[in-house]
Specification:
single chain, 277 residues, alpha/beta, Rossmann fold, six-stranded mixed β-sheet
């Protein structure tokens, strides 16, 4: 059976990241299979954002490796990782608030543009072709998928929080990613907005074939969407498996609740699903 297992699109090997004497990541390793949704969960301070910043190249680990489609990208700069097909959103929205929705999304393609200064200056040849191709993809695919056609010309600063999160996801999709990294995509959203975002994430995986790696606290959404769940605590992987396997793991229950009682964890998950937290 192992011979039929697809090669991972992303593989982390023993990543260690320290700030002074504090280890944010301690020998973290796991694989992400292509065309799946993998979710990293864990209590606050577990190292989830540090992990995302290391994968996307904002932090350089002291040891360990990151392989993307078999290529070692551990020391590759963030813009080159984007060109290879690794895109991400941020826990705190990082849009250009004075620009329109459309212009923010188009900025996502910057990593792939091949236009030189002369082409861009006179808006001829390659520059014009690239602009038309970009507009077609953004307007016919990304905006349509995320249902934001009605706000395409609005300034981002005028949008409610939930729509800003959609725009940030749209900008990441404009990079044409093979792996889309989403850092708490439904944080701060109400239940209706969360259900919409969950639907968009499934569509990205099922219709576009994009692999999704996300960090998320909404446990109901994690259990519903994830093919694979990785649990971090104090910078270490303490569990990895399907959603059902992880939620019955005593180490996970202790990390979240300080006890080994699975009924407590199930109550917590049901409460979060109902309350929309």
């Amino acid at each position: 059976m192992d011979s039929l297992k697809p090669e991972p699109i992303l593989a982390l090997g023993d990543l260690t990241l320290a700030f002074g004497g504090v280890r944010a990541l301690n020998s973290v390793g796991f694989e992400v299979a292509p065309n799946t949704i993998t979710t990293v969960i864990g209590p606050n301070g577990a190292g989830k954002t540090s992990l995302f910043n290391t994968i996307s190249g904002f932090y350089t680990p002291q040891s360990g490796s990151i392989h993307f489609e078999g290529q070692d990208i551990t020391r590759v700069a963030p813009p080159e990782r984007a060109r290879l097909g690794l895109a991400r959103s941020f826990q705190n929205i990082a849009l250009f608030r004075g620009m329109t929705v459309l212009d923010n999304i188009k900025l996502g393609r910057h990593a792939h543009l091949r236009t030189n200064v002369l082409d861009a200056l006179f808006y001829m040849g390659r520059a014009r072709r690239e602009e038309l191709e970009l507009r077609r993809e953004v307007e016919e695919r990304i905006i349509d998928l995320l249902e934001i056609d009605h706000i395409r010309h609005h300034p981002v600063s005028a949008l409610p929080y939930g729509l800003q999160k959609r725009v940030e996801m749209a900008r990441a999709l404009a990079i044409q990613p093979k792996v889309l990294m989403l850092d708490e995509p439904v944080a701060g959203m109400n239940r209706e907005e969360t259900e919409d975002m969950a639907r968009f994430i499934l569509d990205v995986r099922e219709e576009w074939g994009i692999t999704v790696l996300m960090v998320e606290h909404d446990m109901g959404m994690v259990m519903d969407l994830s093919d694979h769940v990785v649990v971090l605590n104090f910078g270490q992987v303490i569990a990895s498996g399907t959603a059902s396997e992880v939620q019955t793991n005593p180490e996970v229950i202790r990390a979240y609740l300080g006890s080994g009682d699975i009924s407590d964890l199930r109550k917590k998950l049901r409460h979060e699903a109902v309350a929309g937290v």
